[in-house]
Amino acid sequence: MAEEFKGGKAAKSGFRELTTKLDIAVKYCSNWVFEWTPFILTICYWVASICFYVSCDEGTIKGFYYFFMVINFYIAACTVIEAFLGISPLRDARAAAIRVNACGEFPTPDELLPILDILIVAYLPNEQDIVKDQVNYALEEIVYPRDKLRINLVYNTPKPIEPLETELLEMEKQHGGLLRVTKVVGSKSKADNLNFYFTLDTGAEIIAVFDCDHFPHPYNARWAAERFIADPTVDIVQGRCIVYNVKETFFTRMIALEFDKIYAVSHPGRSRLFSFGLFCGSNGYWKAELLRGHQMHGHMLCEDIDSALRAYGEGKRAVHDMNVKSYEMAPTFWMAFWKQRMRWTQGWTQASIRHLPMIWNNPPGGSRTLSERYGLISLLIVREMSYYLVTQHTCLLFSFLITGWPKSSGELARLIFFRYALSEWFLFLTVGSLIVTLWITEIVRSEFTSIFDMFLFSAIYIPYLILQGTMGIYGHFREIIGYSSWNPTSRK
After folding, report:
1. pLDDT at residue 366 above 70?
2. Any idea which fold 50-491 has?
3. Bridging pattern class, strands 236-243 and 215-216
4. How does DSSP assign 390-416, residue by residue?
5. Cβ within 8 Å of residue 79, ≥6 positions away
6. CB–CB of 320/267 below 8 Å?
7. Which pTM was predicted?
8. Helix (H, G, I), strand (E, B) or coil at 349
9. Where are the domains of the chain?
């Protein structure tokens, strides 16, 4: 009897162990399917699109060909317009810097400057190797009256990291009221860190938000303060972000030039074209009262873009200032780059869906101009649709290769670029527009990049646009299945 009881107990124990293993296996398979579904859907999208064009008749192919050529030219032309308009803010910034250098002082006396909080946000497991250097740099290099400046490190970590955390607290004691170190217990994101800081009474009039990898230019804060003082209608000042670790890998060299194009050309140019600017997540200065009341929405993957669009929806004004410079690190390897850009891509999709009503709505107590509404359509709709336009055009070109494989380079050129009448004109105008944009980028590129890097960037620019389009569609599929993992950018 005792042996039967023991045998039954062992059987139950074995059954429970088997059930546990099955649960783990099912959970693992479920997570695997969930993680890889967007990838599989993206592959299916490409295959199905190419097959569609292969099956189309010549008249339909011709219609699609001209449609994509016209759209590509339109996007390239808009990019050129933005680039030309972006020259003026840069020229104004340089003129302001020359005036300050000539007279040896800024327009505003130190005693009239606003009280400023510089907020450094860190996820400690990723940034434990750089956080002390970043804080020390801010303490030692930023030129701003010390009685009006506070450096705030707000960080989170899932597990204690010693002796680093103790060393950070010692730094706080050494620098008295100039440095405040805050560990946000229970935080799982940048938004949680920011929202906790907003509950603190620091007395700041202006709050600057920086990611932990940033080295602000010594006069970064002063230029931002001067912009607020010169124009009281300004609520947010977004500075220029410059990648400095260009010598580490090929990725960092190309991303540095991309950032020059984005922050020194596209953002200021688009701001002039559509009459509104946006906070971009880091190296941004807010009026403290606005930001504290604004908060960050942690359920958004790009809470910074969401906050920027919410501020604009409330009628707040953001400007881009090229003198407010900050130097940051680019991802050094493929997976870090992929995770960062996928978070940005899906985050932009979330924000675009959420804020779409701004296109037809008005801000409280005001109205939007036609150019602003057109800018919102371009930002929230055309930008999201551009992923499909770029990839569909590419699929169409692939179908040409499948249905009529060329026997020479000349045949390949005629097949891809000169298939129909007027094709060469659209091609030359589109490529010319891109060359002009890259030429303007060359004019404004940072001191860390080279002309050789510019040629490399130009050579990969078209393939990179196709990669961006693919990543955008991948992000859309992630949003459709409800993927919501927040992946911080690796600094290693």
Report:
1. yes
2. Spore Coat Polysaccharide Biosynthesis Protein SpsA; Chain A (3.90.550)
3. unpaired
4. HHHHHHHHHHHHHHS--SSHHHHHHHH
5. 266, 433, 434, 437
6. yes
7. 0.87
8. helix
9. 50-491
